[in-house]
Every structure is written in structure tokens, then in C-alpha cells.
Design brief:
By secondary structure, this protein is mostly helical. 79% of the residues lie in helices and 0% in strands. This is DUF456 domain-containing protein.
Length: 165
Amino acid sequence: MEYILLILGICLIFGGIIGSILPALPGLPVSWLGLLCLFFVPGIETNYWLLGITLLITIVLSVLDYLIPAKGTKMFGGTSYGIWGTNIGLVVGLFFPPLGFLICPFLGAFIGELMYNSQDKKRAFNAAFGSFIGFLAGTFMKVFYGFILLGIFIWITAKNYSIWI
């Protein structure tokens, strides 16, 4: 049973890291559930404080994930059309790897802003740039924290099974 939980935990963490990039999956909560799997493994000592602190950070970063792209778009003069364009572009970009993942969110934000106001192309470009920067910042933050959770998982597992440590 313990190996099933360990495999499930590592799969959840990697799934969460992938979900940090894809807009449809809740990346950080899934990664945290992978860390929580260690709590149920017999023989592994899990610190309640560590689980609580990582849960709090997961919640804060999940909320920030929705605020950062919106703030980036607003900061550069964008609207909700740019934000929606970024998300749609991200989904479309999945079908055109590897550059589509970076180009399509920007193009989506630009097209969304042009749909809002087709006269002002410079403002649409600036808003698309802000939305794209916000998207990149949020994605980087989630992926970075996902790898931190992976490191914690490996550290706890290695410590309890006397691997490496």
C-alpha cells in the first residue's frame, strides 16, 4: 500500500507541475495533494507544520495566479478581452508546440484587445504585452513552487527510507 501511495504522490506532483502550465488543470492544489499522500504512508513521519505551511502557500499562490495576469493587463491598459484572449491563445498554442505556447497567448491577447477597440493598435499591443508578461510571471511562479513541492516530497521520502541522507 505504501508504494501505491508513493507512486500516486509523485504522479500527482508531476501532474500538478504540468497543470501549472496548462490552464485547465489546477496545478498547485494537485501538487499539494501529492505531498499530502506522504501523510498516509505508514512509517513516514510527516510534519504537520510543513503540510500546513505548504497548504497556505498553495492557496495564496493559487489566488495570485488569477490576479497577476489581470494586474499585468490592467497595468498596460488592457481589458478583460485581453485576458480572455490570452487564455484562449494558450489553449490554441497547445496544438502548435513548442513556440505556439509562447506566441499564441500574446496573439490571443492582441486579437482580444482589437475586438474591444479596433482603432487603437498601439494600445492593443501594449495590453497584449502586459497580459503576456502577467501570464509568464504567473506560470513561472506556479512551476517554481511545483518543483519546490517535488523537492520536499523527495527530501521526506529519502529521509524516511534512508536514501541519500
